[in-house]
């Protein structure tokens, strides 16, 4: 069965042999470990890892000897087996702790995930490690990451929280803005008064953070699928420092998020929430903008308000409301809108989309010959009207400091779990 699993040319689907090995259970453990250590391709290593971590073994202690294996892939696979046991692996905590400092970063990360799966039962053990010097700096750093992964900032004791605040203050002194990964939505208001922005969004308990921390929190929370903590995506918001005179607000407020979740038509409800929020903000600050982008598809959107009136709302997935595609705001001038196709029907005749190189050559040629404009996205409109957070750099004038602030849900449930970089 193992030979079939490792044979990439075998006519037998690999999942069949993997399933048989999983059913064999503990007798297959050491042969699979040897196969993982000697795998001659990433595909074989992936197959073996899948089977090794899912063996039908009653006692996860059978994997314990593999934690000392010389090959990092075997150690990682063993950790995955403990990770899949969740709370049932709690009795192995002391044995798993040294792996937090594994010299191979991927193994150390897998150890963090194993502790995250164990959950709150691991917190006092990890806090004890943080107070000891014997485990070494790598283990202690891994314990800190695991604590944050399990309970967020609330899992850190007062000394670690004070150390985090000191490091943040040090980093803020010399921070240079860097472009953010854009996935989700954000508001932009022309303001430098952070307290006024906090009040406008009903936010509290602001904690100073670097742009790096704030951006990581936004991306972490937006991509959260933690069903055990249903408020992970709506508990906190990142407010940037003033960037060229604009404050950017990243994240979902409790009120807006729950109004949308409770609605029968989510897309329509989101549009109404955005419009109302931009209207209210523009009355307060003179103007306001909302932008949305996705890293998983081509969705993009924006809403622009001036003096209490919506002057433009565009959503690439609701192009029917955009008439025949006429540019409705000066910031869109010179661009195609995302739902528009500027290429003639026969532009790619004879070229297979599967041939990416030929397709790209034809695309560039037709675009240049016909002078087809570039397509604009939310960040392009933001660059013209306020600030493009994806293009931050030393050229951006910065004042004040960013903060992570809690929404109504955050004030009730606390910060979401997860380690964030400083």
UniProtKB/TrEMBL annotation:
Pfam families: HEAT_2. This is HEAT repeat domain-containing protein. It comes from the Bacteria. It comes from Streptomyces fodineus.
């Amino acid at each position: 069965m193992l030979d079939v699993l490792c044979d990439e040319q075998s006519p037998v689907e690999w999942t069949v042999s993997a399933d048989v090995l999983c059913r064999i259970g503990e007798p297959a453990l050491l042969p699979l470990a040897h196969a993982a250590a000697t795998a001659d391709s990433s595909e074989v290593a992936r197959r073996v890892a899948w089977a090794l971590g899912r063996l039908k073994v009653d006692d996860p202690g059978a994997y314990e000897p593999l934690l000392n294996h010389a090959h990092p892939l075997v150690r990682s696979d063993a950790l995955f087996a403990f990770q899949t046991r969740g709370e049932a692996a709690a009795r192995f905590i002391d044995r798993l702790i040294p792996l937090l400092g594994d010299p191979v970063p991927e193994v150390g990360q897998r150890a963090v995930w194993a502790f995250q799966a164990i959950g709150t039962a691991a917190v006092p053990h990890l806090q004890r490690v943080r107070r000891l010097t014997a485990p070494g700096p790598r283990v202690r750093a891994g314990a800190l990451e695991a604590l944050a992964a399990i309970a967020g900032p609330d899992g850190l004791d007062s000394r670690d929280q004070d150390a985090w605040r000191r490091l943040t203050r040090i980093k803020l002194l010399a921070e240079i803005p860097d472009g953010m990964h854009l996935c989700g939505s954000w508001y932009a208001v022309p303001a430098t008064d952070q307290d006024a922005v906090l009040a406008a969004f009903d936010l509290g308990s602001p904690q100073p953070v670097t742009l790096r921390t704030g951006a990581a929190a936004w991306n972490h929370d937006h991509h959260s699928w933690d069903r055990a903590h249903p408020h992970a995506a709506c508990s906190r918001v990142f407010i940037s420092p003033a960037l060229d005179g604009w404050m950017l607000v990243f994240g979902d407020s409790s009120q807006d998020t729950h109004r949308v979740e409770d609605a029968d038509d989510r897309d329509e409800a989101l549009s109404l929430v955005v419009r109302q929020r931009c209207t209210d903000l523009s009355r307060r600050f003179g103007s306001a903008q909302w932008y949305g982008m996705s890293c998983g598809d081509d969705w993009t959107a924006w809403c622009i308000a001036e003096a209490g009136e919506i002057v433009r709302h565009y959503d690439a997935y609701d192009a029917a409301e955009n008439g025949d595609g006429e540019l409705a705001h000066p910031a869109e001038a010179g661009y195609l809108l995302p739902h528009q196709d500027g290429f003639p029907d026969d532009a790619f005749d004879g070229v297979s989309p599967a041939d990416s190189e030929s397709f790209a050559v034809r695309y560039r040629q037709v675009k240049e010959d016909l002078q087809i404009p570039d397509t604009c996205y939310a960040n392009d409109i933001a660059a013209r009207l306020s600030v493009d957070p994806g293009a931050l750099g030393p050229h951006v004038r910065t004042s004040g400091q960013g903060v992570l602030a809690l929404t109504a849900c955050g004030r009730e449930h606390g910060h979401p779990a997860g380690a964030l970089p400083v």
